[in-house]
Amino acid sequence: MPGHAYTAPSPRGSRSVGDRLPPGAAGALRAAGVCTVALALVWAMAELVPAAQVRDALLLRHFTLLGGPHVDTAANALLEVLSPLPLAVWGLALVFYALSRGRRREALAVALVIALAPLSADMLKPLLAHAHARAGTVHIGPASWPSGHSTAALALALCATLLAPARARLYVAVAGGMFALAVGCALLIRAWHMPSDVLGGYLMAALWTALMVAGLRAAERRWPARGSAS
């Protein structure tokens, strides 16, 4: 008809991946992409840029100077919470909490994040080993990036936030973030890792969590839970 422009329908295959995914899944995948790029950049800086290596070592030295009998004891106790057995207990507690609320998909996602994030960090260490600049008398071994402890700490914090009720989610996120930050500081005070190792661990945990959130949102769209709107 005159005055009306005809627009041909776009082919079904021409839609982008973001158009075919639920908004939550697309956003989570973008976050995972950002984490992947950030991981590569952090490792490249720590491996290839001498100035960054020196700053990494100097920052580690500043943290080690904070140590002392009481501080070291507290740091060791905090890090012990993330040993394999306690980590498994914390992870199972989150899984059982999700199952008790009938959230089986979230329970599976949490189990995968807590298992795969630290495992992937440990697998990358020998593959991406590189020499570190010395921080005074402190020396970190080459196979240290990313930190498994900081990975596990933030993975627990993010999974707890994912499962928290909406009214308590902000408080859980803040508490979890403070816990993960405290673990990172303890690692540096005890000179178990370089600062770049700790940052890499945080990014690894965020990457796996973002991937699982994307999977959850896509599953919710594909297989709606009973009682939800179709």
Q: Nutshell version of this structure?
A:
The protein has nine helices and no strands.
Describe the structure.
This protein is mainly α and about 230 residues long. The chain has one domain. The protein is built from 9 helices and no strands. The mean pLDDT is about 90.
Annotation, overall tally of beta strands: 0
Radius of gyration: 21 Å
Describe the main β-sheet briefly: none
Mean pLDDT: 90
Give, in order, the helices and strands.
Answer: HHHHHHHHH
What is the count of structural domains?
A: 1
Helical fraction: over 70%
Structural class comes to mainly alpha
Total of DSSP H or I helical runs spanning 4+ residues: 9
Distance between the termini: 37 Å
Strand fraction band?
under 5%
Residue windows where pLDDT falls under 50 for at least 5 positions: none
State the shape: globular
